[in-house]
Amino acid sequence: MSGDIIADALSAIKNASLVKKAEVVIPYSKLLLEVANILKDCGYIENFKEITAPYKRIKIYLRYEDGKGVITEMKRISKQSRRVYVDKEHIPTVLGGYGVAIISTSQGVLTDREAKKRGVGGEVICYVW
User: Which CATH number fits the domain that encloses residue 113?
Assistant: First the structure.
């Protein structure tokens, strides 16, 4: 464990997808719940739910198309040792729009497209494609 639960959760999701698991359980945090919601809205996962017993966690149901995981890569951008912030003019586009950047803004956790539309910048959490 690296101490960065977001990086650990992203690795767990990516690795579970690579070995074609149906689901993966990650630690609970409000930020990870928002990330899971974005992954679902963007079609990268089937669904997710909160598990409360014996302690809070998030169960993510992975999505596959033609036997391949929809998620091919999840890359942590802003780390505990080096935070990466962007203003509204410099919001990244991932793989020419095929991927998604997840950004923590003053208006909540948003995709790169939504942040551009709302005209807000923030901390770049990760890229997913």
Answer: 3.30.1490.10
